[in-house]
Specification:
Blueprint lengths: L3 E6 L3 H13 L2 E6 L2 H7 L7 E4 L8 H10 L8 E5 L4 H8 L3 E4 L4 H12 L1
Parallel strand pairs: 1-2, 1-3, 3-4, 4-5
Length: 120
Amino acid sequence: MPSGRVLVVDDDAGIQELLALALTSEGYEVLVARDGLDALEKLEGFIPDVIILDLMMPRMDGLAFGEVLRERGLRGRIPILVLSAAAGGHDTVAQLKPEAYVDKPFSLPDFLQKVAQLAA
């Protein structure tokens, strides 16, 4: 059974709940943040093995969050899986250079497999 720590950064409460439940049932310790600023606060006391990141969020979007991670020297140490339905988001994804990308809507088994690969 997989284990590790996952930070879910998404402003959609339904997605937060679904991912937290699915990842917890797979054995992960999960923390949820509603946007990039919230995620930065959570990172003060929680270093994840994987970050699940939405692109389109209020206050601080996924790209800006990725830039702050890079500035703090964390970008190369924590893999990012972008999970987004953003139209035209592929340009943003190219800028962010995540280790994995999943379009919304998504297949939960495929998503969990990608998380397991990144957390390994």
